[in-house]
Structure formats: C-alpha cells, structure tokens
Specification:
The structure is a homodimer. By secondary structure, chain A is α/β, with parallel strands linked by helices. The first copy, chain A, has 2 domains: 80 residues, Arc Repressor Mutant, subunit A; 113 residues, NAD(P)-binding Rossmann-like Domain (Rossmann fold, 3-Layer(aba) Sandwich), CATH 3.40.50.720. Chain A contains 9 helices and 9 strands. In chain A, the strands form 2 sheets. Chain A has a 7-stranded mixed β-sheet with strand order 5-6-4-3-7-8-9, with helices on both faces. Chain A has a two-stranded antiparallel sheet with strand order 1-2. Chains A and B meet through helix 2, helix 6, strand 8 and helix 9 of A and helix 2, helix 6, strand 8 and helix 9 of B. The first copy, chain A, binds a DNA duplex through helix 2 and helix 4.
Chain lengths: 221, 221
DNA sequence: TTTGCCTTGTTATTTAATTAACAAATAAAA
DNA sequence: TTTTATTTGTTAATTAAATAACAAGGCAAA
C-alpha cells in the first residue's frame, strides 16, 4: 500500500512514457535481448537517455552498471505500476470508424485492459460483434456497465452527442473517460477525464508548418 | 512579416487552445451572439478565465471593458494567426478505420485545411472516393503529393509500416507529419512532427483510475 | 595493476506553462 | 455625484517538465 502510494506523484508525462517503454521492451524481449541501455531505449523513443534514466529513477528501478537494465524485470515493474491487478474493463460508445479503429488497435493486445462492450444507436450495428466486442444498444449502457463492472469509457460519438453520452456514462458509474470528440465535456471531480481533439492537432501541425516556411522566407532575405 | 514573426513564440498549448476557442466562437456566432466574456469562453472550454485572457493578450487582442470580446473580430484574428493564407493540403496514408474517421471529421469543415488525397495498398480501396477524398495506390504517393502540393501527411497505417511510410512521405517533400501509429517515427529536423499514441493514452487513463481508487481505499482506513 | 572509457543515478539548472494577484476602467446603482 | 460591482490586461509567483552537469562504479585494455 505504502509503496503504491509512492507512485501517485509521478509526472503525467512519465506515466505516458512508461507505457511506451514497455511496448518497446516487449519487442526487444521477443527478439531475444535480455538487457538494454538507456541510450538504446532513448533511440527507439526518440528522446534523450537522461530522460529515460530519470524516469526509471522515479520508479525506483536500478540497472547494472555497464550492462544496462534487465528487460524482463523492467517490464514487470512497469506492469506493477501502471496495470491494475485485476484488470480494467473498457467500453466504447460510438461504433463508427473511430470506435472500430480503437477496437482493432486493442484487440488481444493488452490483457490487463480489455474492451468488452461497444454501444451504438444504429440498429444495423447492434447485435454485431467486432473483433470479439459485442455492440449493444445505447439504452442498455447503464445496465451493461454495471453488470460487467466496466470502469472506463471511450466516447467516439458525433460531437453533438458528446455531453449527453458523457452524462450517461457518469450516471452508469464509470470512473475514467476518454473523449475523442472535439466538444469538451464536463464530468464530476471523481471521474478522470482525458480529451483529445484531432482537429486541433491538425490545425496545430498546419500552424507550425506555415510558421517554419515564413521563417525560412525571412531568412533568405 | 514582422507581425507574423511575433507569433512564432506563442506557447504550443496556446496555439491548441486558439484553435478550440475559434470553434467555440463560431458556434456562438451562429447563435447570434456578438460579444463574449473571458469567463464564458472559459466555461465552454473548461479552463480558467485567466488563461483565456492570457492567451488573448499573447495574440494582442483587446476586448472592451465590461462588454467582452467581439466574436467576429476574434475569429478573424485567430484565423490570421493559425491559418495559412493560401490554405494547406493534407494527405492521409492508410485508409482503414482511423483514416476514414479522420476524413469524416474533416469533410467540409475547415476550408483552409483540406484533405485532398488518401493512399492505401488494398486494391479494393484504391480508386474509390470517401467523402470526396480519392484513394490512390501507395506507389503514387510521391507523384501525387508533388502534383497537388500537399504539405501535411497523416499516418494511419498499421504500426509495422509506420517508419517506411514516414520515409516515403518525407521523400515526397512533406513538411508536417501527424503519426497516429503507436510506433515512434524519425524525421529530419525540417519536418514538423506530432505523434499521438492511443494505447498509451488509454493506459494512462487506466493508471489514474486505479490510482484514485487505491487512494480512496487508504483514506477510508 | 593502472588507466581510460562507458554507463548509471542523482542533483542542479533551465525552460515551459499555469495560476495568482492586482491595477485600471467603466457601467450601473445608490 | 459617489459608490459598488464587474471585467479586462499585465506582472509576479508557482508548478511541472526537460535538460545539463557530474560523481561514482566497474569493465577492458594496456
């Protein structure tokens, strides 16, 4: 208990990187590697070796000098930190292209984190199964989330339905939400919320592309 | 020229928020509103009024005291900053579920930023049109990107093809890349790169959900 | 054995972003 | 007319994150 508490002040960015380190490490392990240096991890992730070492320091893992980190041990440790012992169930609301894309990404990958239900209002989709994930009618959201003890919801409905969907998920007792619509949603404090807006991301890329071009032009002069 | 340069030190987060403010403002405008207060924008975006005012200060926009900001003017100013005068063309590589989801999100929305081509290797998809976006064979990437003067590429191929796709896009002269595969890619300095990893995001949500639960438990004791 | 080279682990510094604090302006109310 | 409430704009302080700096350990080669 006390140990686990020590991880709740890890920087958000470190949590994200740990997840990425683990995937890279699993790949290395499958290729027969047993140890890895911080600069190797850094190269794979396109970050600096210092940042890798600092992250590992924060989770209290020590490598061996001149031999690097034990890949198997590190994978296990990261799992202890970021995975839930019992596993966490996830539901996707909105089985359009984005919802299905997410299911494909996840299918059979992470066993501690499983997408167990999809919801939609389209009668053509209801009753079908996508990559092993059954699609239920939106009206049954509360019932199924409670029955299956689903704790995380991913919102991939059209933007205009985002906030209503969020409310329904919260009412159903969801603990964490991931909102992929461009419409910001409002949830109670006890629900962890992460939002990602694809339109904004693309506009940002466009801005920096433009910015660099105009910098180049003014340098030429 | 000199004015534009003044925007190249805007914080990245501010750029992202400007894009979001604009969308919110367009919605308000369409409802007949002409002015808006910082705290109204803040409520819509679930941030603080101070942050809104600070962002607007950075772009040099002044509202009128006790009347707020002129929505029309502000929309135009944000456009001047983040849009490219001539517009920027975008290509999507990988017309799977995620690629199609992005096309749906964008279709007909932002006229300064247009998805004009999709690429895939699947013969069933090649030659089709999705929401007005034609799907070309991957081999024609360079040819079409050069011909259409496409500057931004979005990578939505399977992870194992990510880096090869990135190389092809860079070779074709792309200026900005948005990588949605969980595999980090490597691009030259002159290419602006943004990466987003859905698996990591979901693992992060799961971590914080778990963390809060174990905090609650230890509080009960 | 000794020297030099890597590599880790940690602290210090710098940079980025958010939040707090508050002066100034002005419309509305007293 | 004077006071009060509200809202903007800006500087200062705080927090979060990344980067730099460097001591210490230990293998390999001389």
């Amino acid at each position: 208990m006390e140990e686990k508490d020590s991880f709740n002040h890890l920087p958000h960015k470190t949590i994200a990187r740990l997840s990425q380190y683990r995937r890279a490490l699993l790949l290395c392990l499958s290729r027969g590697k047993s140890h890895i240096f911080s600069h190797e991890i850094a190269t794979i992730q396109h970050i600096t070796p210092v940042q890798v070492r600092r992250d590992l320091m924060l989770i209290g893992y020590s490598g061996t000098l001149r031999k690097g980190y034990n890949i198997r041990e590190l994978i296990d440790l990261i799992g202890n930190i970021i995975d839930s012992d019992e596993g966490i169930k996830v539901a996707i609301v909105g089985m359009g292209n984005l919802g299905r894309a997410l299911i494909n990404y996840f299918s059979g990958k992470r066993h501690k984190l499983e997408i167990v239900a999809g919801f939609d209002t389209n009668p053509d989709k209801i009753g079908n199964t996508m990559n092993g994930v059954p699609c239920y009618p939106a009206e049954r959201m509360k019932e199924i989330i409670e029955r299956e003890k689903i704790e995380i919801g991913i919102i991939t409905v059209p933007a205009q339905n985002a906030s209503q969907t969020a409310n329904e998920l919260v009412a159903a007792g969801i603990k964490g939400l991931l909102n992929y619509t461009p419409k910001p949603i409002d949830v109670p404090d006890y629900v962890y919320l992460e939002e990602y807006d694809m339109i904004t991301t693309l506009e940002k890329v466009a801005f920096y592309v433009k910015m660099r071009q105009s910098e180049e032009e003014s340098n030429k002069k």
